[in-house]
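During the second year of the project, the team shifted from modelling isolated chains to modelling whole assemblies. The rationale, set out in the original proposal, was that interfaces cannot be judged from single-chain predictions alone. As a representative example for this report, we include one of the complexes processed in the last quarter. Its constituent sequences, exactly as entered into the pipeline, are reproduced here:
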Amino acid sequence: MTATGGEDRAIRRAVRRRSRLPTILGVAGLVIVGALVVTAVFAPWLAPYDPTERIARPFLFPSAEHPLGTNDVGHDLLSEIIFGSRVSLMVGLVAATVALLIGTTVGVIAGYYPKRLGSTLMRGVDVILILPFLPLLIVLAAYLGRSLLNTILVIGFLIWAEPARIIRSQVLSLRSREYVLAARSMGAPDRWTIIRHIVPRTALLATGSFVRAVSGAILLEAALSFLGLGDPIQKSWGSTLYWAQTRGAFLTPAWKWWVLPPGILIMLASLGFALIAFSLEERINPRL
Amino acid sequence: MTRRIDLRRVAQYGVVVVVAVTLNFLLPRLMPGNPLALIAGVDVGMLAPEQRAEIVARVGLDAPMWVQYLRYWGDIFTGDFGFSFRSSRPIVDMILERLPWTLLITGLSLVVSAVVGVLLGALSAWRRGTKGDLSMLSGMISIESLPSFWLGMVLVSLFAVQWGLLPSFGAVTPASDLEGWAHVWDIISHAILPVTALSIVGTPGVYMTMRYSMLETLGEDYIRTARAKGAGERRVLFGHVARNTIAPVITVLAIRLGFAFGGTVIIETVFSYPGLGRLVFEAVAGRDYPVMQAAFLVFTAAILVANLAADLLYPLIDPRSRTS
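Output from the structure prediction step:
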């Protein structure tokens, strides 16, 4: 008896812990993202120097005036990294918005008209998902040229396929719900049914895929900038690492203040959104 | 046993090839500015009109668009990717000499992340909801957010520079004529860091697939039946759960192999590893468009081969799919 009682309690404890984890991770994600947003918004006040001005000798070690030293042209690295949060967040958010707009449109249409139109659209989505993602991203970015807008567009146009798939499967099931059938049988036009009954109910799922897309887009922006394909005027964490690589900073003691901080921030930014996405997804479809 | 190849899949792969080739054909021709610079690699402004006309005729830009398009297909089928702008060498040669290095590090890292990911994923699912499972899951979510190039840089800083244990760049020690085992060790020691970086970033995907796929299997009726008839934990795990979980995971692995290939662009750049990925980076940095394009086609082909292998493997692993 006592044995089963103990087991019961253990299971109950496990279940409780399981259901608490998404909340804990979600809150952690919100805190990280909140801190980054504050940094990005107040960057001009937080940064001790203008990150585009040569304020000291290049390759300085950390000191009281320059907590993270200076880079190869004498810019203050701390200021550069504080301003970098702006590019990272902006590319992440705008590219994910582009992806969500395309993804929702394709997903809703493909789900609402599942026969000819829908299956053709999804074939297209499958083709996009098979193409070698990173090389395609790089080739497109190289042809289009280096600007913030191009970075955003290239990323946004390549990551919408996954959201489209998720939203389509939701719409497919919504389509045969009673209230949708009722609206249709009373002669509601398709457009009205879609906007009034379908789209609002994909909102939660769409939010989940949006946040996940932000997380992915932040990593992609960093990778593009690291390969020297980012906007040459904007200072981003990826471009800071590009210069650290080009100037061989990671082969010197400078890696501790030049290489570590931007990488940790890229990871935190992407992780913050990933945690929120995980917590949302668990709420919609518990898989823990 | 005889399974007809799914024609829809074959058609889909065909479409992928057409899309990739057409994209390659159109990109340099649709970009603003003169396509001559992108296709022939010459500075258009510097040429006299007759020189320009001569080059236009040589690369075939004077033909109608559809003729150019058909010629482009012809070139690809005969394995003619043209010449590099920078080195003026045939691109096919450049790709063939880089390919083995990329195959080496992607192959090794895929084995590592497959073994680690499958084992940890199975363990995690088996101990679902425990502290171990949840911390492993949180850890994997964090690794998914690691920028791979940064991980590579940190590995170099620590293992190559700080501790001097391993070489920091390249695939072999330059200008050394090592032989026999010394040569083999030289290659291994150069591959350790890139393989480690690729394995670390590759593991969470395998882990997640394994964990979710196994959780699904654990909820099946036949598992409850097996338990109910008194099968031991070990027998349930290896005889019933593992056997039914492994098939979808192997498919995912095969598909990942194709994508892992593309991921080497970043890792090989960090380690200056002379593979296909590094070739793409060099081409991007030097605006060597034909090399970039050819590499893109090779990456596409790799993914298709991996997918095809998964399609063919699946019925061998999972007999249930043969009947359907």
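The CA atoms of residues 32 and 38 of chain B lie 10 Å apart. Chain B has a mean pLDDT of 82.
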